[in-house]
Every structure is written in C-alpha cells, then in structure tokens.
C-alpha cells in the first residue's frame, strides 16, 4: 500500500522504514510522506526478523525493588540519564530488577531470546557471573562500575577513589585530627574504591565502620563510631544518605556539626543540599553516568569500539557541614 502510494518499490519502502542509509534523501522523503498519510505502522516482529534488531535496550539493576524505589535518589538519577539517551536514539528502555540467582537466570533467558539489542548492568554486587554469561552469548554488555574479578567487559564509572581521597585530605587541611569513615558495602566496587581513597589519605590508624549506602546504616555506623572513638572530629561517609544518617545521630547525642564533628558525604544528590546542616560532599555526575552507559552500549550494539574504562570526574562541593 505504501509502495504504490509513494510510487516506489516495496524494497525501497522496506529499506526506509528499517532505517537503511542506502536510500536517496528525496526517495526517503517521498516514502515518509506516504507513511504519514496512510498512518502506516511497521510490524515490529517482521522488522526485527529483517534487521536483527529489536530497538530495545535492557537496564538490569541488581537490587530488590525496595531499594530501587526507596528514598535514594541515585537510582532514579541513573535511570533518568539512561532513559533520556535512549529516547534521543529512538530506542526503548527495558528496566529489569534482578536481585537473586533465580532472577539472574530469567535475565539470561530473556536476553538470549533476542528480546533486546544489549544489556547495561547497574549496581553489581561481588563477582557476579551474569555479565560474563551475557557476553559469552554474544550480547553487547556495558557495566556501571568496574566489574570485580578478572572481567574485561567495558564499564562506565566515576573517579570514586580520587574523590574520596580528596575529601579526606580536605578534612585534614581544615585542621581535623581524627577522621573516621562510614564505608559502603565491601562487595560493591563503589564501596571498595571510596574506602581505598580514605585509606590513601588518612594520616593515622584507620577508623572504619560499614554501612550499606542507606540512611539507617549511616546512623547506626555513626553511633558505633562514637562509642568506640569518642574523640573523633570528622567523618567521611561513602554516600549522602549515610552522611545524613550520621548527622541525625550526631544531633541526638548533642555533637555540633561542624564545630565538634565535620561530616562529608558522597554523591551530591538532593539529600545533600537539604540536609541539616547542608552537606559538604563529593559530587559525581549521576545523570551523566546513565547517559554514558547508554551511549557506550549503543556504540557497542552498532559494532563500534568503545572506550573502557569510561571515567567521569568527581568534585568536592563545600557546604556547611565541613
């Protein structure tokens, strides 16, 4: 129908609607005018058989729903960045939550079934076997954060270690003498790298408590630190939510911030600006991490080489807490 309306061959119509670059611009314009006039909608299943593309990209988040849809703005920021980039490229985002071995197996089956053109992996824990399994299936894969173990998969990350190191050095430059850290999970590369940054910069015996990037874990870790090290005068927390939890504990026990204890977080999300007092923090470009993940995956899916690691800068943002 479109071919006869446009006065071209069916093969030409097929090439235009499937995005081929081999059609002359004037013919492409004629075909698209006919498509609009007739209200034609391509059969996606048939189109996928011809192009071997689905125009769908999966973002697999290795966290439970309760974590993704919590008060942590980080997840929404990355997902928003991914969505913006894929929308601009005319691709569909498929969001998959995969926090267990059973759900990982479901992701493998889904990707192997040809339902997506590639997979972005986000919030990876430990030496997760899923990235390597997907790669062995021939599926384009890009990770958020350096995969632990011996993986050579491409990844996008922020300069977590350097950002943490700069934050701790700043505390010592401000005259603080005993700087503790509330570290992130030991099975996540962000937690590992930010702890390493602290260890590089600390000038005394390390003072460490662990959290899981949540506000509650930061409050509990701060309580433990004060009990064991009542003379501490500064804390670097590996996320803004944990730093905000630490601020709550310090208020409850009557410690003034920053007069008695200086506090620095990591992320620079909305939590930092509205904390009491406003939080000094290490800014990472959260939305740009998502955009970069999507750009790298689109290049990989198109058969192009990608830069890896693709590192984004961090920056210390000074507010009232330190």
UniProtKB/TrEMBL annotation:
It comes from the Bacteria. The keyword Membrane does not apply. The keyword Transcription applies. Keywords: DNA-binding, Transcription, Transcription regulation. SUPFAM superfamilies: lambda repressor-like DNA-binding domains, Periplasmic binding protein-like I. InterPro entries: HTH_LacI, LacI/GalR-like_sensor, Lambda_DNA-bd_dom_sf, Peripla_BP_I. CDD domains: HTH_LacI, PBP1_LacI_sugar_binding-like. Residues 1-51 form the HTH lacI-type domain. This is LacI family transcriptional regulator. GO terms for molecular function: DNA-binding transcription factor activity; transcription cis-regulatory region binding. It holds the Pfam family LacI. Gene3D superfamilies: 3.40.50.2300, lambda repressor-like DNA-binding domains.
């Amino acid at each position: 129908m479109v071919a006869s309306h446009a006065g071209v061959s069916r093969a030409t119509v097929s090439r235009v609607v499937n995005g081929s670059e081999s059609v002359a611009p004037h013919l492409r314009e004629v075909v698209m005018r006919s498509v609009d006039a007739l209200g034609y909608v391509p059969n996606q299943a048939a189109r996928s058989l011809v192009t071997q593309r689905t125009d769908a990209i999966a973002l697999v988040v290795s966290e439970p729903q309760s974590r993704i849809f919590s008060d942590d703005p980080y997840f929404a920021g990355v997902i928003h960045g991914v969505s913006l980039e894929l929308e601009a490229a005319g691709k569909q985002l498929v969001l998959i939550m995969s926090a267990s071995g059973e759900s990982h197996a479901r992701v493998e089956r889904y990707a192997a079934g040809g339902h997506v053109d590639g997979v972005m992996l986000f919030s990876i824990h430990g030496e997760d076997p899923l990235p390597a399994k997907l790669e062995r299936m021939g599926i384009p894969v890009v990770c958020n954060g350096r995969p632990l173990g011996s993986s050579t998969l491409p990844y996008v990350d922020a300069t977590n270690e350097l950002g943490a190191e700069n934050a701790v050095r700043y505390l010592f430059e401000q005259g603080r003498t005993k700087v503790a850290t509330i570290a992130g999970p030991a099975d996540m590369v962000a937690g590992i790298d930010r702890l390493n940054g602290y260890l590089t910069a600390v000038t005394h015996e390390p003072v460490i408590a662990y959290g899981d990037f949540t506000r509650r874990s930061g409050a509990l870790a701060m309580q433990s630190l004060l009990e064991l090290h009542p003379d501490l005068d500064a804390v670097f927390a590996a996320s803004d939510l944990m730093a905000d939890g630490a601020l709550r504990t310090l208020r409850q026990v009557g410690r003034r911030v920053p007069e008695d204890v200086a506090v620095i977080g990591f992320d620079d999300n909305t939590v930092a600006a509205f904390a009491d007092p406003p939080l000094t923090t290490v800014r990472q470009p959260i939305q740009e991490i998502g955009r970069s993940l999507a750009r790298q995956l689109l290049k990989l899916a198109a058969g192009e080489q990608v830069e890896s690691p693709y590192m984004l800068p961090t920056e210390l943002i000074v507010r009232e807490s330190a």
